[in-house]
Write a structure and sequence with these properties.
The protein is built from 7 helices and 5 strands; from the N terminus they run E-E-H-E-E-H-H-E-H-H-H-H. It has helices at about 25-35, 105-120, 130-150, 160-165, 165-175, 185-190, 200-205; strands at about 1-5, 15-20, 80, 95-105, 155-160. Strand 2 (about 15-20), helix 1 (about 25-35) and strand 3 form a beta-alpha-beta unit. It is globular, with a radius of gyration of 17 Å. The protein starts with a strand and ends with a helix.
């Protein structure tokens, strides 16, 4: 776990962001923050399913950030909202963002996405996983470089596997990063190791 913290240049309304690649543990982190007392901004349109039995914790209008839809951020002040990594660059400068960025082994991300395609009745072989692994890796590098240059963004990088393996120190760091607002023990109690169904070591032997 590592974090990039900076003092914001001006007093701006704070929005708490959970980000990362799709299937990197963002929904789990949203649930942890909610359990810890940090209210989420969600609309409930995407219901829980086999791939995310605990729920997706999404707010549909987030997907329109790249179209200039940012007015909804007024509703997100003091709340946690999930924003995938590709959309972070479209967040307006009017707010200060504290971002919990979920990291996960690319092989596990791809395996999870493959299972999702199967569950949806889509062809999992339609995706070139080698090409996607390269694209994802390069994308994360670019996003990290971008975040490092933003004066209104403070970032904590959290590895999905570390949370499942030993949640307490991870929850402590997350709570400290967010101003000791989320309750650590409540966050820990929500972690379900059984959700780690695409472990890297399992993939290596399959």
């Amino acid at each position: 776990m590592s974090f990039l913290r900076r003092l914001f240049k001006s007093e701006k309304p704070v929005v708490y962001i959970v980000s990362g690649l799709p299937r990197s543990g963002t929904s789990m982190m949203m649930k942890m923050l909610e359990a810890g007392g940090l209210p989420p901004l969600t609309d409930g349109l995407r219901e829980a399913d086999t791939d995310n039995p605990k729920g997706y914790y999404e707010f549909e209008r987030v997907k329109q950030l790249d179209k200039g839809d940012t007015e909804w951020l007024a509703q997100a002040q003091g709340k946690a909202v999930k924003v995938i990594s590709a959309l972070l660059k479209y967040l307006p400068e009017d707010y200060a963002y504290q971002i919990v960025f979920m990291e996960r082994d690319i092989s596990e991300v791809l395996a999870s996405q493959r299972k999702m395609l199967v569950h949806r009745g889509e062809d999992p072989d339609s995706v070139d996983e080698v090409k996607m692994a390269t694209l994802f890796t390069n994308h994360v590098k670019k996003v990290k470089a971008y975040l490092a240059e933003q004066d209104n963004m403070s970032v904590l990088y959290v590895h999905y596997n570390d949370v499942l393996a030993d949640p307490y120190p991870q929850a402590q760091s997350i709570s400290q990063f967010l101003g000791n607002r989320p309750d650590v023990q409540a966050m820990v109690e929500i972690v379900d190791p059984n959700l780690h169904r695409n472990r890297k070591e399992m993939l290596a032997t399959s």
